[in-house]
Amino acid sequence: MAANVFLAQFLITRQQARTMLDATFATARERDMAPLTAVVLDGGGHPIIVEREDGCSPLRSAVATGKAYAALGIGVSSGTTGERNAERPAFLAAVADAAQGRFIPVAGGVLILDDERRVIGALGVSGASSQEDQDAAMAGIEAAGFAAGLRP
Which are the contacts of 31, defined by CB distance < 8 A and separation ≥ 6? Predict the structure, then answer.
């Protein structure tokens, strides 16, 4: 049956996504962070892998996805979007509405960049402080051989 369809091109493989999550969680354990949930989205905003550590509350998946989606949707990290628009709550609310609630503009959503610094996906993390979430995401991205994109 597979010979009867065109195969899609993947810019982030499942194994690379797995490496990102493993490194994200390893960083969290090394730094004694609270349990995390992490998600890797492809460039179109579709999940490649979503996983939570034991003890992480169930809403963290939606938050991690919202952080990653915010980064993809705006083109800078989710924390950068929040910082840049702190004085524009109406803009942030409008974007959250346009994104159908999948838009969390706080640190923890980091763009995944290829060798030419093009966006190919995003990693979102939730569970610890926003800065810790972002740091763990960056460690995960770099462990897979990609560059972490916060702001140009």
Answer: 132, 135, 136
Q: What pLDDT, on the 0 to 100 scale, is given for residue 105? A: 96
Q: What is the pLDDT of residues 39-68, one digit of tens each?
A: 999 999 999 999 999 999 999 999 999 999
Phi, psi angle pair for 70, to nearest 5°: -65, -40
CA dihedral 24, 26, 30, 32 (to 10 degrees): 70
Residue 107 near residue 76, CB atoms below 8 Å = no
Distant-in-sequence, close-in-space partners of 45: CB < 8 Å, separation ≥ 6:
69, 72, 73, 102
Rounded mean pLDDT, 88-106: 92
Query: How far apart (Å, rounded) are the C-alpha atoms in residues 17 and 80?
Result: 23
Mean pLDDT of the chain: 95
User: The tokens of 65 are what?
Assistant: 């996805």
Backbone Cα Rg of the chain: 15
